[in-house]
Input
Amino acid sequence: MSTEPSPTLDAPADDRPQDDLTQQVYNSPKERAIKYLLGACALVSVLTTIGIAAVLVIESIPFFQNVALAEFFGDTRWTPQFANKHFGIWALLSGTVLVTVISAVVALPIGLASAIFISEYAVPWMRQILKPGLELLAGVPTVVYGYFALTFVTPLLQTFIPGLGVYNALSGGIVVGIMIIPMVASLSEDALQAVPDSLGQAAYALGATKFETVVRVDVPAAFSGIMASFILAVSRAIGETMIVTLAAGATPRMTLNPAESIQTMTAFIVQVSKGDTPQGTIVYQSIFAVGLVLFLITLVMNIIANRITLHYQERY
Output
């Protein structure tokens, strides 16, 4: 009886481990070129943001050398183009906040409701019509929205609110809200679609209705994405320019009355940037100070959106 050990089968010479094959693919000249190209594109966006921030800071330094921070953040009047100049940013901030709050009241519930209907209730053929149709609103130029607010929404509101002026925060805020509805609806619908079907099926198995499943399972599971869409949409509303320039007026005042004419930070920048203001003057420098405040506000809101997304993100 033979006691020779059984021969072992050697692996073929070209049968290398998967990690080695993957490493070879990643190290190929074509893959390296693609990696560097994509990295360069990402670097361009970062450098652009840094460049914008640097320009705002550098151009704002001469302004703050003449205007104290106590006056800038403590005064409630903004009259840089008057003989008696005041540089109280709160007059512009209040107008910006007023328009943003009105737009959020309009856009957030309507956008979320639209996302829930498209994601959970609409049949496939209806979804194929509603979602592209809703997203078409995002392609409408903002100047068209501005004239729509001025020539249609304001006259319509004047029939219900006697004495409402031609320029008012209510009309501008409503139309800004209409403009950001597609952003809320599209991002929220994507978040709802990412929720696993197994969660909804489990709720149905426990006897939940369709509405209960949507409200108590799907929406909480997609909460991080929904909140991110809310904050990004509000950031978009804060930075809106043409609608508020055409519809809300150019009267900087610290007020919470939506029927009055106000001026937002972006509208002031447009007003001064038309070319009538000489460079180097305190009025010209003020647009960079206002732009810096606007940049910091949107930066903080985007950081908050990222924190909320990471904190409430569900992994399935």
Notes: Residues 19-66 form one domain. Confidence is low (pLDDT under 50) at residues 5-15.
